[in-house]
Amino acid sequence: MTAAPSLASRAMANDIGDAHWLPFTAMRQFRSNPMMFLAAEGMHYTSADGRRILDGMAGLWCVNAGHGQPRIVEAIREAAGRLDFVSSFKMTHPATFELAGRLAGIAPEGFGRVFFTNSGSEAVDSALKIARGYHRARGDAGRTKFIGRAKGYHGMGFGGLSVGGIGRHKRDFGPLLPDVAHLSLPYDRASMGFSRGQPDAGAHYADELESLLQINDPATVAAVIVEPVIGSGGVYPPPKEYLERLRSICSRHGILLIFDEVITGFGRLGTAFAAQALRVTPDLITCAKGMTNGAVPMGGVLIRDFIFDAFMAGPPEAIELFHGYTYSGHPLACAAGLAALDVYEELRLFERTAVIATTWQEALHSLRDEPHIADIRNIGLLGVVELAARKGEPGARGASCAQSCYDNGVLVRASGDLIVLSPPLIIDEEQIAQIVDSIRSAVRQMN
Ligand SMILES: Cc1ncc(COP(=O)(O)O)c(C=O)c1O
């Protein structure tokens, strides 16, 4: 149970000082109208002005089982009191092996090893390094290039930023990793707009990989990295057969395929990982967010056995991977991760998601004929309502829609003119209707 916010904490929220520089935030605008939350439980936040706000984003794509799950809260408490910290460099504690084993158990067949990080960004950079290290361990050190994709989001480390495909994120920070190429976005509004789930058209976009490999000698490419469903870049489900084709091209050329499942992992598509729902098996899977239900920062790389085995060929006393983070496998994160997996299982949350995703799809697409709607895309419990930009004011409609929803007690995320949705997987039909109705009423009032 979440404690009700005290009067003192509410008063504090009104006098917050100005020391904190928030990520991805227009700071001066934020100061004039700070959005603050004091507590959360289940599907709702409590805002600083005492309102219950329905969470349409699972925090930031992470609180899959809803907020304040008592079992997770208790596990963190217990771990903090018992073992506050132990390094994972040359030592560890039992929960790291237990959690890794549980993750391997729900991963696609053959992913027998897990490397722990503290975030999705670190998971991505770790996966890129493991990919290069794998080739080198096999005597193929010339394979160093990476291929990402337009609109891909792989976190904010220099590696993830380099393979990412959102130009604005990179503009101020170059130069990035050399030798990175990008596939284009597999999307064409005319043939794929308003698709329900995976678009029927668009598999041919995967053939671009062959073209890129004609320019970038395939024998120099270490890995292709994609989100199975593009998330932060705008929720683009993969066209049918697209990922299958990427998979077979990578296999043909000895290139590793990395699925970045930081958003899609832990049930979002109705299976533990999107790889299972979409029936395509990559070589490395990055994950984070739902790994602990968002309760403690944690990420990881799930690794296929043949990759791990390649690292194990040297002398047994030699360190195989010169890489890691102080907090890799932190006791609080492991406790939260184990409890989160228990909760997901107990609630049969992934199976439930597969069922309620149909209601979600129909509700979202009921907005199709409302004003300013340019496209609607969905898969699992992910969705986006794309608004047509107002002439000369890109992003204005998105911001206005998100504000209006918030005023009506619903938290959605505006990314330019996209209204991005990713509710906790415990959402019910009434709450789905509340999200969709708040968007409906916002776009009806908007010019
Ligand atoms: C697909 C994907 N990869 C990586 C990241 C980065 O994760 P983090 O913010 O935990 O570093 C994100 C974050 O949203 C993501 O969506």
Describe it:
The protein is of the alpha/beta class. The chain folds into two domains: 7-65 and 348-444, Aspartate Aminotransferase, domain 1 (Alpha-Beta Complex); 73-346, Type I PLP-dependent aspartate aminotransferase-like (Major domain) (Aspartate Aminotransferase, domain 2). Helix content is 37%, strand content 15%. The protein has helices at residues 7-13, 27-32, 58-61, 70-82, 94-106, 120-137, 158-163, 167-170, 189-192, 208-215, 242-253, 274-277, 305-311, 331-346, 349-365, 396-407, 429-444; strands spanning 37-41, 44-47, 52-55, 113-117, 145-149, 180-183, 221-226, 256-260, 284-287, 299-303, 373-379, 382-387, 410-411, 413-415, 418-421. The strands form three sheets. The protein has a seven-stranded mixed β-sheet, with helices on both faces. The protein has a four-stranded mixed β-sheet with strand order 1-2-3-13. It has a four-stranded antiparallel β-sheet with strand order 11-12-15-14, with helices on one face. Strand 7 (221-226), helix 11 and strand 8 form a beta-alpha-beta unit. The longest helix is centred in the N-terminal third of the chain and has 18 residues, at 120-137. It starts with 6 loop residues before the first helix and ends with a helix. The structure holds pyridoxal-5'-phosphate. The site of pyridoxal-5'-phosphate (PLP) has 14 residues, from helix 6.
